[in-house]
């Protein structure tokens, strides 16, 4: 189970890269849909991580997930608000 969680975290960063590379090429409706799916994936990953990292020694798992979620939020803020 621990390895699966680590692979899901790596998948999160791969999705972040793909989102950053291709979001400007998508039409507005599809970009919103992809953004909502990324938000849902991050929320599920955060919930799974908190459930899995109940022990004191598993706290290191929380930080990459939190950093990935903050990067996704920052990128979405840039794409939809700042860049317009």
Automatic annotation (TrEMBL):
The chain crosses the membrane at residues 30-48, 60-81. It comes from the Bacteria. The lineage of its organism: Bacteria, Pseudomonadati, Pseudomonadota, Gammaproteobacteria, Aeromonadales. Keywords: Membrane, Transmembrane, Transmembrane helix. This is Transmembrane protein.
